[in-house]
Amino acid sequence: MAFPFAGRPPAEILEDLRARKRDDVRWAEGRVFAYVYDPGDEAMRLLADAHRLYMTENGLDPTSFPSLLGLERDVIGKALALHRAPAGAAGSFTSGGTESILLSLKTVRDLRRATRPVPGRPEVVLPETAHAAFYKACEYFDLTPVRVPVEPESLAADPRAIADAISENTILLVASAPSYAHGVVDPVAEIAELAARHRLHLHVDACVGGMYLPFLRELGQPVPEFDFSIPGVTQLSMDFHKWGYAAKGASAILYRDATMRRHQIFAWSGWTGYTVVNPTILSTRSGGPLAACWAILEHLGREGYLELVERSQRAALAIREAIERHPALRLLGRPVGNLFAFTSDDRDVFAIADAMRARGWYIQPQFGFGPSPANIHLSVGASNAPHAREFIADLVACADAAPAKPAAGDLGLPADLGALSFDGLAGWLGLTGTDLPAGMAPINRILDRLPHPSRDGLLAEYVNRLYRAR
Ligand SMILES: Cc1ncc(COP(=O)(O)O)c(C=O)c1O
User: Fold this and answer.
1) Hey, is 182 helix, strand or coil?
2) Bridge-based pairing state of the strands 201-206 and 170-176
3) What is the pLDDT of residue 443?
4) Does ligand 1 have an atom closer than 6 angstroms to the CB of 239?
C-alpha cells in the first residue's frame, strides 16, 4: 500500500476511470434488469449537470445554503402530493431507501419511548417479503423484528398472520407497495385497519413503487390503494433514485403528521464545535443528489413519468407473458407492475442467470426463502423496453438449454453445515475472497441450500475479505 507522491493529469485519470468499468454490467445498452434506472441520454445529461452544479454545497447547514432548503421543500412537497398526504404532513430527503427505513423505525421507537413506552423490547411486525433494510434498522436500533408468513400463492402480506403477531411490545406494522422480490402490493387498507385498532404506526414501504404505481394507476391499471389516502398509514418511504430516475442518493421518508418527525431530528450543541442539527442520518451531505432529483422531477413532470411507466409496463407484460407461456418457467405471486420474479420447478434457475450473463444480460438471482423458491428477479425499466424482444428470445433459449435442478443430495453438502468454518465452506465453494468469482451458479446453488444465518455469516466474512486495500 502506498500513497502517491506525484499527482497525475486529469485527462489521464478520467481515462483510467473509464477503463475501470470494463467488467461492469452493460447498463447503458439496456441489458440490465436491476440496480440501474436510465431515463435516456437527455435526462442523464441533465442529472449530471444539476449534480455538478450542487456537488460542493453542503446540506449540513440550511442557513448557509438556503438554496438546498428550498430544493428539499419543493421535492418533498411533490412527494407528499403524489402520495395524497393531508395538510400537516412532512418529510425528509434522504440518501436512499435504506436510510428512509432506518429513520422511520428510529422515529417510531423514540416517539413511543417519549409518549407511550412498551413494557419490553419494542417489536416490529414484518411480513417475510419486507425488505432486508427493516432487519438492518432493527439491528441498529435495538428493536425485535417479528417475521410473519405471507399468503403462499399471492405472496402478499397476510393480515391475519400480522394480527396474530401483535403483542404489547409491538410498535410498528409494515407493508410493501410493492415488495422488491416479487412486485406484489400488500393489502395496505386491511393492515391499516389493524394498525388503527391497536393504536400502532404503519410504515408503507413504497421505496420501489412510490414513483411508479401512482402513474400506473393514472394510466387506468388496477393498482391497490397504498398511500396516505388510507387513514392508518402513518409513514411512507419512497425512492426517487429508482423509478423517479434521479441520480443515486435520492429518497424520502414521509410522515402523516409533522409532529412525528420531531423524533427523527438530532440536535447537539454540547461540545466545543458548531451546533449540529441533523434531520437525517448524515451530517455533511452533498447538494448534488438533491439538485439532480429536483431537476429530473421538473424535467419529466407527470407527463414524462406517465410515458416512462407506459413503456416499462408494456415491456414488463410482454416478458411476463413469455415466462407464463414457457413450460419450464413459473411466475411467482401476483405482481402488479414492472417488477416480478420467476422460478422453475425442474430447471436450475441459477444456471439460467449465468447463461443470460454470458449473453450480456444481467438478471438477478434470489435465494429461496419461506414460500418463495429460488428464483430470478426482473425490474423492467424504460431503457429495457426496446430490447424486450431480444431479451425474451435469449431467455427462452437459456431456459430451454438449462440443466435440471440438482437434488439436494447431488450437491454433496456436508450434513452439518452449521459446524463448518468460513475457510472450510469458502474453500469448498471456491470463494477465496481474493477475487470475484467468474460464474455464480455453482456458488448460488449451494448458498441457496444453506439456512440464512449460515449464508449471511459466510457472505459477511467473504465481503470482509473482498474489500481489502491494495
Ligand atoms: C421495497 C424496497 N425497500 C427498500 C429498498 C432499499 O433501498 P436502497 O437500496 O435505496 O437503500 C429497496 C431497494 O430496492 C426496495 O425495493
Assistant:
1) coil
2) parallel
3) 87
4) yes
H or E element that contains 13: helix 10-19
Confidence grade of residue 417 (pLDDT, cut at 50, 70, 90): low
Domain count, the chain: 2
What residue type is 299 in one-letter code? H
In Å, what is the CA distance from 244 to each residue of 16, 211, 224, 259?
30, 5, 20, 27
How crowded is residue 290: how many other Cβ atoms within 10 Å of its Cβ? Answer: 27
| CATH assignment of the domain containing 205 | 3.40.640.10
Burial bucket for residue 282 (CB in 10 Å: 0-12, 13-18, 19+): middle
pLDDT in tens, 179-222: 999 999 999 999 999 999 999 999 999 999 999 999 999 999 99
Supply the DSSP string of 188-215, one letter for each residue.
HHHHHHHHHHTT-EEEEEETTTTTTHHH
Backbone angles phi, psi at 36, to 5 degrees: -125, 140
**Is the separation of the CB atoms in 217 and 211 below 8 Å?**
no
Distance 98 CA to ligand 1 centre (A): 6
Residue located via cell numbers 429536483: 294
Find the 270 Cα to ligand 1 centroid distance in Å: 35
Which residue range forms the structural domain that includes residue 416?
408-466
Nearest to 150 by CA among 196, 205, 187, 102: 187
CA of 410 to the centre of ligand 1 (A): 35
Q: What average pLDDT does the segment 330-354 reach? A: 97
Q: How far is the CA of 262 from the centre of ligand 1 (A)?
A: 24
- Domain end (from 295, 315, 334): 295
**84 touches 228 (CB < 8 A):** yes
Q: Is 98 in the pocket of ligand 1 (CB under 6 A)?
A: yes
Q: How far is CA 193 from CA 237, 260, 372, in A?
A: 19, 20, 27
For residue 372, tell me if it sits in a domain: no
Residue 443: strand, helix, or coil? helix
Beta bridge partners of 254: 91, 236
**∠ Cα 78 34 29 (to 5°):** 100
Final residue before a domain boundary, out of 280, 295, 310: 295
